[in-house]
Amino acid sequence: MSKPKMSDEERKQLIERLAADLEDFVAERSIAARNKKATEPEDNRTIDEIVEELKSHPAFMTDIDWSKPLPPEIEGLMQLKYECENPTARAGSYREDGNEQFKLKKYKIAIDNYTEGIKSRCPDAELNAVLYANRAAAQFHLGNYRSSFNDCIFARKFQPDHFKAIVRGAHCCFKMGKFADAIRWCDAALMVDPEHSEILELRVKADKGQRAKERDERKQAALERKEQEEDKKLLDTIIGRGIKVASMKVPKQAKFDPLLLTALESHNPTGAKVHLDQQGTLHWPVIFFYPEYTETDFINDFNEQHCFYDHLVHMFSQEPPAWDVDHKYKADDLEIYFENNDEEKLYKVDPETSLLQALKHKKYLVYAGTPGFILCVKGSKFREEFLSRYKY
Q1: From its phi and psi, is residue 379 left (phi > 0), alpha (psi between -120 and 50) or beta?
Q2: Are 93 and 84 contacting, i.e. CB atoms less than 8 angstroms apart?
Q3: What are phi and psi for residue 291, nearest 5 degrees?
Q4: Domain Cns1/TTC4 wheel spans what residues (predicted)?
Q5: How far apart are CA 358 and CA 363, in angstroms?
Q6: Model-level pTM?
Q7: For the chain (length 392 residues), average pLDDT per consecutive 10?
Q8: How many CA atoms lie less than 13 Å away from 31 in the CB half-sphere?
């Protein structure tokens, strides 16, 4: 059963509603475009830029001076049938050639033809709507969904009830994962044809996609809240221990600031970071410096309750490191220091001291989320020379 034909008044009212809806959509997208830059390479124009370009089109101008020369790029393409001085006829010729190339699935060539037709700047709004809608179709077949969508907006600017442009725009939104926009464009299409099966099916898919997207966003928000709570607990624990971290000199009463966590990002090549275990114990990545040989050791997980000596026994009781050619680095023969950069002074650490006790020292400051300590051999010549460089 065919649909009853719209009266002129009904069609006029429909066009007004569609035009108003499009204007609202463009306004909303303009605000969003200011907050988020487009990332797809094929067309980085904002909606504002598209509208500005549209305003300069002869179809929307009340005073057109066709005596003025056309842009150089168009003059260079005026050949054969395109040399016609009538911009409408020229645009129509480009449309016909574009359609032929589209049928042959030569979409890039079709796009070039439609583009030249658009550049003809003809005053025929309906022809311009067709050129933009056809170019949108070609762009869509190439997977350039953002460019295709922008052309759909242009087509509707010229002809608000252009059904193919509305349908194409809905599909573009869906392909780009913009499900809320897809639903809105589907609703616009259903205002023209309430029983259009393709659009009804697409709307169901878009609604399902939007629900899934909102569900994922809620999960992500919950995960971020959980991570923030864990981060706050970590910072509170560190500050509560009396440990000072570079760029994090804040009082215990200070409110939680997620930016402070950047001071805890480790430079450990393994990516290990300070963390709390289930018993509330801190585990730190720690670096040992051996200035005599310009070597380092990373300890990925140093329990704050463990003492330095236990780690030294584990590290130097077996095969000596390759750089220790004299085999003099042994747990019982090592001294441990930390450096206070502000004072350019070294402070000695008892090997039987726990990591927590060392970090709570009033002169200790943790840099880059990784406590660091200097190790030297007792009584060695290098130790004497090294210590002489500092206040000690």
Answers
A1: left
A2: yes
A3: -60, -25
A4: 277-388
A5: 10
A6: 0.58
A7: 68 83 78 56 56 54 46 47 71 95 95 94 94 97 96 95 96 96 96 95 97 95 89 88 75 46 58 89 94 92 96 89 91 95 91 96 90 94 91 60
A8: 5
